[in-house]
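USER:
I wish I could look at a protein chain and see how it folds. I am handing you a single protein, as its sequence and its fold in token form. As I understand it, each token names a local backbone shape. I hope you can help me see how the letters and the tokens relate. The protein I mean follows directly.
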Amino acid sequence: MTAPVLSGCEPLVAEGSNLGVLVLHGFTGSPASMRSLAEGFAARGYSVEMPLLPGHGTDLADMIPTRWADWYGEADAALGRLFARCERVAVVGLSMGGGLSLALAEHHSEIAALGLVNPMCQPLVAELREGIDALLESGLEYFDSIGSDIAKPDVSELGYPGTPLEAAKSLSFAMETVHADLSNIVAPTLVLTSRQDHVVPPDTAAAIVERVSGPVRQVLLENSYHVATMDFDQPLVESEIFAHIAEHLGANS
């Protein structure tokens, strides 16, 4: 039995028009980091699904046994729910949510647009993978948190205080496939990249810009760290994403 969902980490479902938006949060994070965007889409009349990914938003112990297949499975199911009631669907994601967005677009060419904020798309370097293996061999299940990388004072994404090691390995292995298959993506893609990011190296976005087959536009964020959706650049992030989705998915009248 999992722990109760923490206040502020609840998923969001909005019934709107026949235009849908899937909104995905990051690794060890929660829907809190994407709530303003999700609510903004709902206020604009879109149908919205923002799932709470398995193992997240409750207690760190709940995430330790979860893997990429669990997170991707829930994201894919939410996408399916939107396609069941919408004619066109876009996907917006932060960090691992961006990696999930890329993976979905690699398998679903019908996705109309992607909006990505500091997305993951590359595996961990060998030294980090070896470090994780050494920690696991020593009996540890998690290490220090990578969450709430935010320049703005006193702001938290309501993430976990630790990073589950086996789950991180699973994410890294999945990114190998996501990175290899970027050319399968044809959806118009917006990538927002923080110049200072202590979780995903800013040059990660270069692979997306160079390899995605559809049109790609990158916007650099000067004043935010990794969780830019809650940081100083939040207004810019939201205005860029809302405009991009309206352009390529359609705007509600």
Q: What stands out?
A: Helices lie at 35-43, 60-63, 68-85, 96-107, 126-137, 165-180, 205-211, 234-248. The two ends are 44 Å apart (CA to CA). The longest strand covers residues 88-94. The first helix runs from residue 35 to 43.
